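Illustration 12: non-specific protein-tyrosine kinase.
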Amino acid sequence: MSQQPSKQRHLITVTNPRSPVSEAFRALRTNIDFSSIDEQIQIIMVTSSGPEEGKSTVTANLAAAYAQADKKVLLIDGDLRKPTAHKTFSLSNRYGLSSLLSQQAELSEVIQESGVNNLSLMTSGPIPPNPAEMMASNRMSAVLQELRQLYDVVLIDTPPLLAVTDAQIVASKSDGVIMVVSYGKVKRDIAVKAKAGLDRVGARMLGVVLNNVKRKASEGYYYYYYGN
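Figure caption equivalent — predicted structure in token form:
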């Protein structure tokens, strides 16, 4: 059963699928799909250089865009420090990724229906004292391998790159990375430093999403651009 749009206020791809922003997310989805011919891009990490750049909103809308293309999708809130996905989808965060990694819950217990067809959600779970160690664990690698067999696309929302090491750790376990940059807010050298952190762990950069780019013809809309 679908939730009411009011509970998905951040999901413009669901509440207004014909909008220019929703079309931009579909274009982003297509660009990712065509960015690799020989290797399947299945596990995608989304991050940003710093806080409040809109990475969680971008992740949720991209996940919905994949689900609308009849893909079986799982969105993981991998931000074990400041989680937001459970709020976006109005779901419980009693059990989630941290519960699974600490072996306090089974996989089936931490996956919830999002209210969007084809899209499931794994919330962060309770905030642990050792997020980076959890992400670097063999257990995390094993979970991702299991999820490859269950879903067409797995999107992981992580903390900002320059704040903690979590994102770099997850990047090394992912097929590709998308970095969200808030237009006019983040200085170029900061964005370059963030990307350098990804390069150090051998992450595959799929593209950069410029968030909060106002469209002159309609100041109410924000575009999300994709670029290699």
